[in-house]
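FAQ: What does a ligand-bound record look like?

Like this one, built around MTE:
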Amino acid sequence: MLIRRAADILSSEITPPEIYRERRRFMQGMGALAAGAALGTAAEAEAGVRLAGVRASPYKLDDAKTPYKDVTSYNNFYEFGTGKSDPAENAGSLKTRPWTVAVEGEVRNPRLYDIDTLLKLAPLEERVYRMRCVEGWSMVIPWVGFSLRELIRRAEPTGDAKYVEFVTLHDPKQMPGQRARILDWPYVEGLRLDEAMHPLTLLAVGLYGEVLPNQNGAPVRLVVPWKYGFKSAKSIVKIRFVEKQPLTAWMAAAPQEYGFYSNVNPSVDHPRWSQAKERRIGEFFKRDTLMFNGYGAQVAQLYRGMDLKKFF
Ligand code: MTE
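The answer part, i.e. the structure of the complex:
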């Protein structure tokens, strides 16, 4: 992805990790005191709180799950810095309550969801998905959430809804990385409506049975396991149904490197590196990257007849 220019981010803009951890310890103590309080309080929304009523699902894998520590401390969330440990260190400044998600655009039922209403829209399931970052690393993550189609069905898209746009929160006060022009904020991603309706496409609110940590996109994020990780927008505040293909943040930043589809495809190289192999976090040897990240049986028909080198 893009390399951060050191001068773009002032060190004073970033909460020192020791202060962040201290604050977290304090808040976790508060969370324990508040146990038993109504769902939806700030304490209940804290990362690490177990999500109630999570069902098993058919989405399981034989692959070993990536340890919780790696899933939550090595990732990308440029709103909190471009280093792999920056999101875990800096995302404590994100406030996930109150939080609303606007569903709007070409739909018969536009709606502003309060996050705690959204959480109850459909039964929560655990789904173990392979995730592949465009940079060449991969993980196996037990997400908790429900299919995005549950929300889309209720929104009733009109005949003009061809694409769905996902917008991340834009608030440089909470997201220090947004004070630097690394991307044209807010972070925007998009899917074709049929991709968004695919049962694999998940609105995730947790991982490892617990509330999603901020660095992983709390309180709600997208997970599209057959596409490179950047399609899976975090900390979503808007889901917009549109007629024209959205201009995504990465297409705006580097159109020759990041296309709209971004399906995991070992035979289409990134202009600056091969995509044939990947490093599964925790493994020593690289493994072959699978077409559609191994989800071809479920999703290949979405792209029948398309030249996937052209529509990369
Ligand atoms: N969403 C936002 N808003 N900002 C980001 O920088 N990074 C993306 C994606 N979603 C990103 C984002 C990239 S490149 C990847 S690989 C995944 O988040 C990584 O996070 P995860 O391990 O929690 O899925």
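Follow-up question: can I read anything off the structure? Yes, for example: The two ends are 16 Å apart (CA to CA).
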